[in-house]
Structures are given as structure tokens and as C-alpha cells.
Amino acid sequence: MTESNSNRFVVADTFQVRAPRGLTVEGFSDMTHPQIPVRKPYVFGENLRNVLAFLADPAGDGLLLTGPTGAGKTSLVLQVAARLNWPVQEVTCHGRMELSDLVGQMVLDNGNTGFVHGPLAVAVRDGHLLILNEIDIMDPGELTGINDIVEGAPLVVAQNGGEVIRAHPKFRLFATGNSAGAGDSTGLYQGVLRQNLALLDRFRVVQVSYPDADTERKVLEALVPKLPAVIADKMIEVASEVRRLFMGEGDAGSELTLTLSTRTLVRWARLGLTFKGAPQPIAYALEQALTARAEPEQRVAIHRIANDVMGDLWTGNPQ
Prior knowledge:
This protein is 37% helix and 17% strand.
């Protein structure tokens, strides 16, 4: 970030939260960079302060956001970046990913071979945010290659003749995962691996949970404003009960292996309005939003929960 491109944003105005008027955070003034995330309606919760504190002074750390699927780990970072005009390199990790996929590779283009910098190299060089989604699925042996980079050491690109990229002062590394790197003790997530302790020691860890009912009500008001409030409240209640069973908090034998995340809740609400002229539109929308991919017994269980919570609304029509 050059001096001419830096800008300070008033936290209260920028994120629509309660904060002292004098509290500001640094971002970019240039709104045209193609890697700035698309700004969307968003309700910021208490973890906003953790992200802003990290952006202000990472002190040689990365920031690992951990929590259940669909809780808003990635969207939190993206929407903060969108409001600060901070470019983002975003990568979804997988079990076959190698460090070279992040650093860059030699490619053949029109008969000529050249090096193309990967998302890690670009973020380190240009001061972007790098988000490694599902980091706990990636091979821990490959991830050890970023240990020193997190602390601000130069990135040496052996594949490009030993190129040395010194870390831009505004480079920040975020990671998200359903676990905190110690493996999945719940059995809910496939492919989660125990990560290297030396890597984990370089991260601050923030737990991201599903929003509370009031926050999700604001989310639905912002994203699905035409949804009647009474239906929104019942949908949130259904989501809460499904999550409770997903997290293993129900009676023995009543657990679910899929959940109704905030992302799915919004999808359900939108589809409920889309199909409002059809018979039983809320039930039909829930099937498309979630339960069509559930095992038959779990589909029945979730629909039973929704029926019990919503009563006549379950078979009615949102107006």
C-alpha cells in the first residue's frame, strides 16, 4: 500500500456498528482493483474487532478462523476487505494441493515458457490478503513451507531462478477450517487432517459460531427484505434446532450429519419467496435448499422439525 493509496476508515460508519467515533482502521483508497471482493449486505458481529485488530497489527501472526460449516468464516473476511478496498487472493485447499500451487509455476503460453506467480506470491508482493480456505484439509507437510512467510520472511521462488519477494507491509494471511488444526474429533467433516504444530503456533485462533437469532434476523431483513417477519422468525428457530442436533446436543440417536447454516437459511428464505405461488412453498424450498441431499431418515426428521415449529405456515403460502 503506497502512501497515496492508503486511507483511513471510520469503523462505526464503515461497518455500521457501535464504536467510538474516533476509532479508524487503515485501508485502500483505490476502489478499482479487480481483486477487491464484491461488497454485499452484511451484519458484523463481535468477531469484527478480532479481524480489524489483526489487520492493524498482525505482529508476525496469521489468523485462523475456525468453526462449523457455513458459519460465515470466509464471508467475514471478504466483507471486511470489501469495505476497506483491500485486494484478496482466495484459495480453497484440498488434499492434493502442493506449495507450488500457491507460489507459482512455469507455464507454456503460445510456445513460450514463463513463470506465473501464484496467489501466495502475489499477496506477499502486493500487500493483499491471502485466504486459505479449508486449510485443515491440505497436506501438513506442504503447509510447513509457509511457516517463515507468516512471520514476514522473504518468499524465495526457486522455480523462478531463486527470485526473492520481500513481504509487503500490508500482506496478511488468513486461514479457515472446520477444525482448529488438531483434527476432527466430531466425525462430522471428511478429510480433515491434524496440522503441524509449528504452523499452528504461528496463528491466532478465533472461533466463529453461527450468529444468534437477532443477528440472523437482521441478515434476512437485509438479504430477503420481502420475507414476512413471522416466517423469518420460524425459519431461524428451525435452523437453530437443526444445528443443535448437528452438533450432537440432542438425545442419543437423534443427531444429524448435515446442518442448516446461515448460508442455507438465506437460500431457504429466498426460495420460499420464489415458489410462493406453489403448493407448500416453504417445504418445497427447504427441500431444494437442504434436504434433497439428506439421507431419507434425516430428511423426514428435518421436515418434522420444521412442521412442528412452523405449524400452519409449513403448508401455507408466504405473502
